[in-house]
Design a protein that fits this description.
By secondary structure, this protein is an alpha/beta fold. The chain is built from 11 helices and 7 strands. Helix 6 crosses helix 11, helix 8 packs across helix 11 and helix 9 crosses helix 10. This is Two component transcriptional regulator, LuxR family.
Length: 220
């Protein structure tokens, strides 16, 4: 059994997330923090494998909680789970230390697969969020505007690693990638680990940005 903290103030959403987590992990124990203060109080009470953090809370933003969790429970995987899909919230969450960003309006099947991927070392990024990250890089990075003046970064990836990186940047998890490339999830996990090491990144969001910067992904 492992513990998951859900930081959410809406009771009906708490109930839904508890059911969702139960389907994703039969041996899960869910604890709740309905406010920032309650969530902080949960830290240190038990080991938390995962924290799902909403952003809009009665006593502040969930963004304030993320660095607090990182300091007091560095092994906890922090995922933002929200309705906000704008660039500001996405990038602020990533900068604060979230390793994934999921939208609540995704289908139950997608959310369950994404949550399972977290515990298998595959931090989740909703496909829409991956696209927004790449759009932001495209709009702000001169490398994408003028390759002649600023050529793409060169990273020594083989063909299979490049394929894996492109699929990661589209928000796909290891199971989906395995199906597309006719590989086992274990093999895909090994490739993802190698890609992250070569790129010197630790999250899907960072990998998606690097895919854009090295010229593997183009946004039209």
């Amino acid at each position: 059994m492992f513990n998951v903290m859900v930081v959410e103030d809406v009771e009906s959403t708490c109930n839904w997330m508890q059911v969702l987590l139960g389907k994703a992990f039969p041996d899960v124990k869910v604890v709740f923090g309905h406010t920032l203060a309650e969530a902080r109080g949960q830290l240190g009470q038990q080991f938390l494998a995962l924290a799902l953090v909403d952003l809009n809370l009665p006593d502040g933003s969930g963004l304030e909680l993320i660095p607090h969790i990182r300091r007091h429970s560095p092994e906890t995987r922090i995922i933002v789970m929200t309705i906000f899909d704008d660039h500001e919230h996405i990038f602020n969450a990533i900068r604060a230390g979230a390793i994934g960003y999921l939208l609540k309006d995704q289908s139950e099947k997608i959310l369950i697969n994404k949550l399972r991927g977290v515990m298998e070392g595959d931090p989740p990024l909703s496909p829409l969020i991956a696209r927004k990250i790449l759009e932001q890089v495209r709009d702000s990075d001169p490398i994408q505007e003028n390759h002649a003046v600023n050529p793409p970064l060169h990273i020594d990836l083989n063909q299979r690693e490049e394929e894996i990186l492109v699929l990661i940047s589209k928000g796909m998890n290891r199971t989906e990638i395995a199906e597309i490339l006719s590989l086992s999830p274990h093999t895909v996990a090994r490739y993802i680990k190698d890609v992250y090491q070569k790129l010197d990144v630790s999250s899907r969001a960072e990998a998606a940005i690097m895919a854009c910067r090295i010229g593997l992904v183009r946004m039209s």
